[in-house]
Amino acid sequence: MIFDINMYSEEKNVKLVVVEFTDYVMVWWERLVVERRRNRERSVSTWKELKTIMKKRYVSKHYYRESFNHLQMITHGSKSVEYQKELEVTMIRTNVNEDEEVTMCRFFNGLKRDITNVVELQSYVEFKELMHLAIKVK
Q1: What pTM was estimated for this model as a whole?
Q2: Domain map of the chain by residue range?
Q3: What are the Cα distances from residue 33, in Å, to 12, 40, 63, 85, 103?
Q4: What residues have CB less than 8 Å from 41, skipping those under 6 apart?
C-alpha cells in the first residue's frame, strides 16, 4: 500500500523492502546480490521479482499442499466467527478462487450439526447471508 500511495518506482520499492531485512534475511540477501554480480546477472529491480525470489527461498514446497489439506479440515468446532475468518484466510493464502456456491457448501459442511439443522431450513442466496444465519443460530 505504501508503494501505491507514494507511487515509487519499482527499483525504489525493492530498496524499501530490502532496508527492512534483518539478521539472517539480510545475510541471505547480501549473498544473493554478490552471487548475481559474480554470475553477471542483472540486479533484482522489481517488487514482483523480489517476491518470486523470496517465495522460492522461504516458502516450503509443501506449503500449498499443507494449506489445501488444512482448508479441507477446517470445521466450526468451538469457534464462532473465527471459523469463517479461518476459512477465508486459508482460501486466500492457497489462492483458491472457487464459485460462491462451492464456498457456501464448504462453509455449511464445516458447521456443527445442530447449527446446520436450523440453517438448512432458512432461505439464503449468498455466502454472506449463510454466514450471518449461522452466526445468528449460534
Answers
A1: 0.57
A2: 2-58, 63-137
A3: 16, 10, 26, 39, 43
A4: none
